[in-house]
Amino acid sequence: MTDLVLVDRPTAGVAVLTLNRREKYNALSTDLVAQLHAAFVDLAADDALRALVLTGADPAFCAGLDLGELSEGAAFSPDTLEPLRALPVPVLGAINGVAITGGLELALSCDFRIGSERARFADTHARVGITPAWGLTARLPQAVGQSWARQMSMTGDFVDAATAFRIGLLNEVVEHAALLDRCIALATSIASTDKATATRVRQLYDIQRDQSGSAALAAELEERDRVVIADTEAFAARRDDVFSRGRGQSS
User: What's the predicted TM-score (pTM) here?
Assistant: First the structure.
């Protein structure tokens, strides 16, 4: 099987996990998700790990679910991102390109995000014709506020790196060539803190986030159970329209 997930260890206590489906903009296929889960299990068992950097092989971070597989009946569990969210160490998102829909949810599952000037975000659920099921309606407004979250979800428009920084979706924007080095430096800084205290502080943040987001996630899952992609031809047409529209949007 092709290595769809790469794990590097640039320095003590730090790992870099790269989605490696470059030709498909790192879209989440069933094979990629399986390899991702296996990598998360291995990383969670590593007592020496203190921080993880999550990124994608250029030119994208993650284009979301593989819509081709989805239109052919592939099933993606609501728990798809739980192994990432359950990791016992902070996760930094190194957003090197587009993070679309499921890719946006992947980015939102990180503790925080650093982007290059090429970072772009979009929530295209409504344009494709599927409802969120991984907690986006809780996590996106937690990151950017209700108004911006609603604008992104209701329009499906792309948000560029400068706007993402202004609204709180990115903590920093750095030059593309410097992105990974900056994230590794931040991860190394995390690794130098007192492990027990840092873990407890992160758990306290998680409690606050999860308490405020539990109702939204429950509502997503209830709605998801009512939505079935019955007309695959219409779904494919909407998917193709999103792709062509995204290529035409500069921001």
Answer: 0.89
